[in-house]
Hints:
Helix content: 40-55%
Strand content: 5-15%
Number of strands: 10
Structural class: alpha+beta
CATH class of the largest domain: Alpha Beta
Radius of gyration: 22 Å
Number of domains: 2
Bound molecules: zinc ion
Order of helices and strands: HEEHEHEEEEEHHHEEHHH
Number of helices: 9
CATH topology of the largest domain: Glutaredoxin
Largest sheet: 5 strands, mixed
Amino acid sequence: MKKDHNQNIRRIGLKLITTVLFLVGFLIGIVLNPTLLYAKKTTFGNYTIFHNSQLDKNFIYRLEQSKALLQKSELYDANFKLEICLNDGSLYPKLLENIVGQAFGLGFYNKIVLMGKVNWKDNFTELNGYKFNLSQLLAHEAVHCLQFNKFGLWKSNPMANYPTWKWEGYPEYVARRKTDSNLQKSITRKINQENFQENGWAISFEDRTITPSVYYDAWLLMQYCLDVKKMTYKNLLKDTTSQQNTNAQMMKWFVTQKISTEE
Ligand SMILES: [Zn+2]
């Protein structure tokens, strides 16, 4: 009698594990195959776009802008094929939001997922009333895919566990390089806004878009390491200088720059 009871429990447990594994596998299958949840698929060169509505006429222009930013990155790979999943009616972005939480966008494996409300003409995407520059977001998320393409699953975050400033600073560096390349000006913007506490958690740009302060700080440090210290991104990932020490070095540099421009 007791033996039968234990066998039953074991059988039920096994069934439960099989069901959970099946569901997790099913979910991964959908996440890796967005085509299952989209009505339309359009290809431009190395980009495959998954969408439900007709593509906006400004779409290609924004894509070209982001591509021009990417081409300057040391991680750029002309043969790398990317997929872009739009937030225009498919359940796919909602599904990912349920897994990872709210975000303007996501970049993983070879996929860029837009999760906010996009305005292709005015070049921004909106989430909870905050705007993020759209072509820069496309570039930022694509850099995450390039990181994965270059370093592989185990040497990329979250597996590799690199500090946020190193993992998020680089996509911001690539995305903002063209419009905002003056590091002194960018540090001054941060100091000014922190004094007035405009948004608290975010820093605003002149085009009325924002980036979270954590990303902004990461971007400044990345630009300091790559442009002033002349490190490569690959070497920076291996370097052991702490965020705090890098920040101290950068601020020391900032003060000397300020003095020399004031003289
Ligand atoms: Zn990111």
